[in-house]
Fold this sequence. Notes:
Low-confidence stretches: none
Strand content: 25-35%
Shape: globular
Largest sheet: 9 strands, mixed
Number of strands: 34
Number of helices: 25
Amino acid sequence: MKDMLTAKEIRESFKQFFASKGHQIVPSAPMVIKDDPTLMFTNAGMNQFKDIILGNTPIKFSRAADSQKCLRVSGKHNDLEEVGLDTYHHTMFEMLGNWSFGDYFKKEAIDWAWEYLVDVIKLNPDRLYATVFEGYAPESLERDNEAASYWEKHLPKDHIINGNRKDNFWEMGDTGPCGPCSEVHIDLRSDEERAQIDGRSLVNESHPQVIEIWNLVFMQYNRKADSSLEPLPAKVIDTGMGFERLCMAIQGKRSNYDTDVFQPIIKVIAKMANKTYGSDEQSDIAMRVIADHIRTIAFSITDGQLPSNAKAGYVIRRILRRAVRYGYTYLGQQKAFMHTLIPILIETMGDAYPELTAQQDLITKVIKEEEDAFLRTLETGIKMLDKVMEETKEANKDVVDGKVAFVLYDTYGFPLDLTELILRENGLVVDKEEFDKNMQAQKQRARNAAAVETGDWVTLKEGEPKFVGYDFTEADSEILRYRQIKQKNQVLYQIVLDQTPFYAESGGQVGDTGILKNGEEVIEVINTKKENNLAVHIVTKLPSDVTASFRAIINKEARQATACNHSATHLLHAALRQVLGTHVEQKGSYVTPESLRFDFSHFQKVSDEELREVERIANRKVRENAALEEHRNMPIAKAKDLGAMALFGEKYGDEVRVIKYGESVELCGGTHVSATGNIGMIRILSESSVAAGVRRIEAVTAQKAEELVDIQQDILKEIKSLFNNTPNLAGAIKKMIEDDGELKKQVEEFAKEKEVSIKNALIKNAEIINGVKVIRIISEVPADSIKNIAFQLRGEITEKLFFVAGTSDSGKPLLTLMVSDDLVKNGVNASAIVREAAKLIQGGGGGQPHFAQAGGKNKDGLTAAVDKIIELAQI
């Protein structure tokens, strides 16, 4: 090619090439997965086609190609800790891919891969290698000679390399479609390096310049639960090419980070940090980490996943915090900085992914708030670490307990490498073995909690499952297939019916419950979930005759309550946009029979007046009793013309379902009331912040709303009765609060007078020991008062003061020690003394050299503890 291709041109050339080969070019699916319990993030291009590959969804087109945004940070594909340290690992990356579903197979996949790489983008064929599956005797799998024979048309035999089961046999999971694969590798080293060491010997050896760029997977088997293999009825081609690595190869770079995918971002980071990329290894690593992670975080937020402390949100929070601490530790970024990189990210990727531009304000605000929160956490962690270091040195040790480091990491998000760095600067080290032991124990607990044993599907009859729940609450059904699952020592069964009225959990709406009935036998359905686009009914036991016909009956009362809440979210969404502005967009929802939760974009707290207005508008729509207008299988363009809003982070097909109540128009697959009057009433319970730029309202409807009103009226009646049923209840409560405040002031004055009285009596009864004024008290005194007395004494007696108190307050023992500065200079340490004496009251504490306190459990030990304090002071 006459000029070097840019990243944008490379991405487009791939799509154009496969479009010319009859492939349907499909958009990238969201990176965040919402309705698949087995995956949190899209980690490969094939994820959006998983339902087709498993046979759960009909094939729309037999050939497809796309550029898919992917994220690999957890589970089998855990690249997080490698990112930044080398030049080719990433968290978020783009995967270029082409697929065939029962159409072409190995020959075309290999020929077209070669044509694109060599003829279209002009890679040097002498630098290319291909791997093929070498076979695996324990499973009677032979070498993939078919793939090898096709490669021999393009490559010399010494560039075709046998690969083992680990590298060249791809599996979707422990069970499911699988098959041999063929990887394309490229040697990007200089001619001099290639002359010295043959590239063949470096394939799959983690060399940074001899790398895999494309993996061609030939799915031809199905792995069963007993690990045996059976042929797939329809063979699948699934290929994936790392976009960033391809750019490196085409642009003649030695690192993915040197391409125009990352360099614009790295240059902005370098300027911000006043560094030069390439001049220092540690700062280079930090810049690579930040450039990679900002992409992941921004795309996750656009797909609707905000940082949080649970599941996918926790993964995103970890990635963001990793970037922040690299900037904090190695680039001197003590204040929030990541959010300032969003403009350059949009400049480089906004054309291909317009959702970045559309949500720039939200992305920026969320990242800024997360950064500020973590920087405060770092500050807290450093203070805790300072205390730990002081105690370690006091004990004449140089190793900090690994459990302490783990608590800092696990509870406060304080990273181990930063702990190690700070300790090293102070001549200390952490017990890494103990830290690792605690980390492994935590991981094992998490694994045990999440472990699920899944049996093979037992297929009773073939057929496509059909959902009839929009129209019926009961249906005659037969079981298509079932399987056993084990989780947390509980045995459950998943059942797929040929037709079902049960709604499977998705789109924020919980799944239906109900029963399967056959004569006298009743099987309870405890939940309905969607797995790989398949509605599975979860039961605790199988029917005695699984081949029988059943009456599938949902819990109608629960369904109606859920429908009321779901339809209410639509009315609230419309009302929020009317009151707050059209910038309001849904960011999540959760609908159950009991209540609803609705998250939406808005950059400040919603006032009480605004909430009341939203509630009024929504309830007005309820009273209008607007009839449901449902449009099934409407072309998405027509739905948008009707006013429906497509949400970022959602995956829509060519045809969608539209739910309309008057001016409220939504794309939605959930269940709804036939008219808004069925909702009865909507009452908003609360409004709160979920993240920067995202607010949450919680509400109840119908019977639950009536119950809420009843409870509030009963409480109001009870309170009024306490005030003699006064007509001016607010005035009466205000007067009581004012009177209470006045009484508290009087009590405080009395307490101060008593403190002065106690202090004067203590001074009068002071004992002189070796020239030191020793003042001691063992009595019932409030904790605040004894502290005030201690500081009053220190203010009046500036030298030779040793005040020790053993007091109790509401049965809780407390030791207090205050000493003058001259005694501290002579070696008296109040903190160390109190910590030791506290053992006698079964407690602990500490403080400063001049003042310390300790609480405990054993009130009877106070006298002995006070004596111990005087003994330890060696006055």
